[in-house]
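User: Could you check the structure of this?
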Amino acid sequence: MDKNILDKVKDFITAKFSAEEITAIKTEAAKFDVAPVVTAPAAPVTLKEAKTKDGKSISYDGELAAGTVVTILDPASQAVSPLPVGDYELEDGTKITVTEAGKIGVVTPVVVAAPVQEPVADMAKMSLQFSEQKQAFETKLSAYEKENKDIKNELAELKTSHGKLLTQFSKLLDTPIPVVTRTRSADVDISTLKGKEKYLAIKEMNS
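Assistant: Sure, the predicted structure tokens are below.
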């Protein structure tokens, strides 16, 4: 607007209204002097996807929790619509209940079973079992040692007997064999002989 015109309007107001009236007019005008509202840009929506165990594709914004908006994708038309009311189980085992179309009511997380721990055996019982096993082993070991000792003694006796036999056999080999001189039957009185000796003497005389 032209400055001259603004000056004329200002002079007119100053001439027609008192200082108090001008102050009142400014106060009332200030009520209508509203500063422009600056709207912050909306945060970008990042949808997360998941699949149910029966193959349905669902999307949700934010965390999978009660109150979260959830939609379902129609694979045929590729249209997105609010997830109908019902119970759904996701591939990871999480269960969601939609109590209002397109809004999660209850989320049941996967329950991971705690590893089963084997009961700790009673130490006194284990100690007793170990003691019994040790005693049984020592008993068997003692029996084996006695058996081994008996075998060694028998071997020693056999060795001694074998040595004696070898000594006797050696002496026998060293003993000279006596030479037997046969006497002709003619020089023997047959009447003094009996049995086989008499028979052999007569046979020799006739040969």
